[in-house]
Design a protein that fits this description.
- This protein is mainly beta and 113 residues long.
- It contains one helix and ten strands.
- Strands 1, 2, 5, 8, 9 and 10 form a six-stranded mixed beta sheet that branches. A four-stranded antiparallel beta sheet has the order 4-3-6-7.
- The radius of gyration is 14 Å and the shape is globular.
């Protein structure tokens, strides 16, 4: 089975991948959130194969990108110390790709392929 979730972080200001970005995945658990996986983007800004397929089903998920620590590690400031993307999975068998296009004062995301 293909990994159920991947992400890709690009630094729009520098025009290159955001290598070394900490990312955490949580799943809605009643009124709160339960941690499922944590990882760090590689040299190409990608993070794949980090979520076990067995723990990934239909439901609501939250990706938390550690943008504040990442920018600080480069001696840069950011308006967003953390970017949180919440999304709903209706087909857990399908692959889900959630990319993040990032700058110190803005970000964008979408459902990729």
């Amino acid at each position: 089975m293909t990994a159920p979730l991947s992400t890709h972080v690009l630094d729009a200001t520098a025009g290159r991948p955001a290598a070394g970005m900490p990312v955490r995945l949580d799943r809605r658990d009643g009124a709160g959130w339960a941690g499922l996986a944590e990882g760090v983007t590689g040299p190409d800004g990608r993070l794949a194969g980090w979520v076990p397929a067995a723990g990934f089903g239909a439901g609501e998920y939250r990706l938390r990108f550690g943008t504040g620590d990442w920018f600080a590690g480069q001696g840069r400031v950011t308006f967003y110390p953390e970017v949180v993307v919440i999304f709903t999975v209706t087909d857990p068998v399908a692959h889900h790709h959630v990319p993040l296009l990032l700058s110190p004062y803005g970000y964008s995301t979408y459902r990729g392929s």
